[in-house]
Fold:
Amino acid sequence: MSTQIALVGGNGKLGRVIRTVIDELEGFEIHRVLGSSSELSELDGADLVVDASTPAVSVEVVREATERGINVLVGTSGWSQERIALVRPLVEEAGTGVVFVPNFSLGSALGTVLAAVAAPFFASAEVVEAHRDTKIDSPSGTAVRTAELMATARTEQGPVSAPHVDQRARGQQVAGIPVHSLRRPGVIAKQEVILSGAGESLSLVHDTVDPGAAYAPGIRLALPYARDARGVVAGLENIIDLGIRPRS
Structure:
């Protein structure tokens, strides 16, 4: 029997990629596609909700699905650790599972893990991320996740050195790490983490050039995982075995 999926935001860029993967994946079937004019009561009857909506809508999708006892796979950006903490008690009380994946790219997940592994060894760290000019939120969910994990990895060392962060041009601080967001046409998704120490620097760059090809493998892994999950799980790196794993 196929897992019935309610896909929220299925007509957006990410939603269309997810829909293609579901159509090709054995054991999963689209139950309903919800758009901007849909009521969240249409989640009824689904075995799994996949959220590819907007940051403003996503929190209500998670709440409505959880109250109905339905697991959720969240691909919508904008979920920081602080925001996830707000829905964690609701998920635990309901006994359901919510999986947050800010980026379905395997390369992006690996880049985030490597940045967290390297963070304790460098005094300075900054993140520069670029997306197309139509992206609503900034910083991106991937950049927020990366900065948060880097800060967690530096618990013993303390915050990174980030001089003059009171100046707006120095970017937005996420977990004490400056993050700079570019929004321009001709870009899909790119992130560079720059770590600097005495006499050297290390740059970790991930560039998405074909979202359909880049996201599909991660979506295939995340769907069955989210269907069976319990509690809150954040990050694709917690779904795939990369051999190394940051503290989360």
Notes: Residues 190 and 207 are 4 Å apart (CA to CA). Helices lie at 13-24, 55-67, 81-94, 106-118, 141-153, 211-228. Residues 211-228 form the longest helix (18 residues). The radius of gyration is 18 Å.
